[in-house]
């Protein structure tokens, strides 16, 4: 077997990152035909087939996935080194790039990043993304840490997600201030309407179990996946809702909304997601530890 050409391997890695030969060629400033020839040369040198073409898509073979795992380790380590030299060199401002799940509670996010606002030696970038974009950002070293409300399972051989539970917030029935029924649930709730999380949310499942135990059928006016929108509807609609009090803490403090009581064994969990690195950034580790201690 000919000696491995790391230049060809790098091109292979960039194609898999972009999931498109055309986009990878544009980023690498080479022609698509030249890039294709480089990858074919890599396959020839290794005596393997890395891709299968399905229509316009390139699909990795089993061997291609194994080669990708090695390439990912080699080149992501190189990118990590570049980021380390750029962001963690002594005597310069340190920078953290954070990604947050797009439907996550804004109040919780603000609480989580509070230590960064108070640290004069750190600045940060914060972007709201869908889950797929968050995970791609972690793998591609675009972000240092992702904040989500669910743990991520490792389904790909080339990626290991590190899930750190940083907080578990109790879930409660939230309603207009001063309108809480005087009797225990479900008495006094028969004529109430609800705005609740979508059916795929853990909170929704816990609420439905709670209602089933009490043989109560909620009159659901709206199902909302976005936590920020759920907060607005809880505040403005006059209906009852189910969410962590931290989401509406300002409205509770200003006596617009009221916590009618926690739902037993119902929590929303918040996770800090990272990927393994040779040298984990200390400021990221400190941020996670601070959050764990705050919500312990």
From TrEMBL:
InterPro entries: LysR_HTH_N, LysR_subst-bd, WH-like_DNA-bd_sf, WH_DNA-bd_sf. Residues 4-61 form the HTH lysR-type domain. It holds the Pfam family LysR_substrate. PROSITE patterns: HTH_LYSR (PS50931). Keywords: DNA-binding, Transcription, Transcription regulation. One of its GO terms (molecular function) is DNA-binding transcription factor activity. Belongs to the LysR transcriptional regulatory family. This is LysR family transcriptional regulator. It comes from Marinomonas pollencensis.
């Amino acid at each position: 077997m000919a000696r491995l050409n790391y230049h060809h391997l790098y091109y292979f890695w960039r194609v898999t990152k972009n999931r498109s030969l055309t986009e990878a060629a544009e980023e690498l400033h080479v022609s698509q035909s030249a890039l294709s020839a480089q990858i074919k040369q890599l396959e020839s040198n290794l005596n393997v087939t890395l891709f299968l073409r399905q229509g316009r898509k390139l699909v990795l073979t089993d061997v291609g996935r194994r080669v990708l795992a090695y390439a990912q380790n080699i080149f992501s380590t190189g990118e990590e080194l570049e980021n380390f030299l750029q962001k963690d060199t002594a005597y310069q401002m340190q920078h953290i790039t954070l990604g947050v799940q797009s439907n996550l509670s804004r109040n919780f996010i603000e609480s989580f990043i509070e230590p960064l606002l108070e640290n004069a030696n750190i600045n940060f970038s914060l972007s709201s993304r869908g889950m797929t974009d968050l995970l791609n950002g972690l793998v591609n070293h675009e972000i240092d840490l992702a904040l989500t409300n669910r743990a991520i399972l490792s389904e790909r051989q080339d990626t290991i997600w590190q899930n750190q539970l940083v907080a578990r917030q109790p879930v409660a029935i939230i309603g207009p201030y001063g309108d809480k029924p005087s009797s225990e649930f479900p008495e006094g709730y028969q004529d109430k309407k609800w705005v609740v999380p979508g059916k795929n949310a853990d909170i929704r499942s816990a609420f439905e179990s709670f209602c089933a135990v009490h043989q109560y059928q909620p009159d659901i006016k709206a199902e909302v996946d976005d936590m920020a929108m759920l907060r607005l509807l809880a505040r403005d609609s006059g209906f009852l809702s189910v969410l962590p009090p931290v989401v509406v803490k300002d409205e509770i403090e200003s006596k617009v909304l009221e916590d009618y009581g926690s739902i037993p064994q119902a929590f929303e969990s918040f996770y800090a997601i990272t990927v393994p690195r040779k040298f984990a950034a200390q400021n990221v580790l400190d941020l996670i530890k601070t959050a764990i201690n705050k919500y312990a």
